[in-house]
Amino acid sequence: MSSNQRVIAFCVTVIICTFAGVGITCLLFGAIDVPKHPITPADIKTTEAPRPHLAPYVEIPATKARAIDGDTVAVTFTLTVPVRLAGIDAPELRDEKQKRAAQVAKQAVARWLGESTRDGHIIRLRAYRLGVYGRVEGDLLDERGKSLSDCLLRQGMAVSTSGGKRHEWTRGELKAIEELP
Questions:
Q1: Alpha-carbon distance 71 to 89, whole Å?
Q2: All domains in the chain, ordered by first residue
Q3: Residues 88, 161: contact at Cβ < 8 Å?
Q4: How confident is the model at residue 27 (pLDDT cuts 50, 70, 90)?
Q5: Which pLDDT does position 31 carry in this prediction?
Q6: C-alpha span between 170 and 11 (Å, rounded)
Q7: Residue 16's pLDDT is what?
């Protein structure tokens, strides 16, 4: 099965579970939140990947999101799932050496989410694939089509990666993130 077919199969599963009932969705994905407006097939569109090393993706409207750390976001559409921002790596909260920089990156993600969902605006999930740890690998876009991953890269809060490899953060890189506004 091709990467594109797996993404489409994942999204079809989400839609089927949505129509079959939230209970099945919760069993499959560990969801805890259910928004007022369920996804319909008309809400989902497929398109080409924005960066060559990422697979084609499916966009699913999201109604709520919160930062977990600098490169993972809990997103609510019909269900809440953790989303690993594909193609980037940010400092990790669980690593003591990276913790202060990770908190700065997490705050940047939380600000982006707050600004992007203010006044009832919604964000969209670009779901590329289902990754390890049960997280969807993808990106988030605001109503103007601005990418959270691109924002973090521009601000220096994350680095671009390919193949799912973690970046080896230097003291200088971490200090530069810690000193960002």
A1: 6
A2: 3-178 (2.40.50.90)
A3: yes
A4: very low
A5: 34
A6: 38
A7: 42
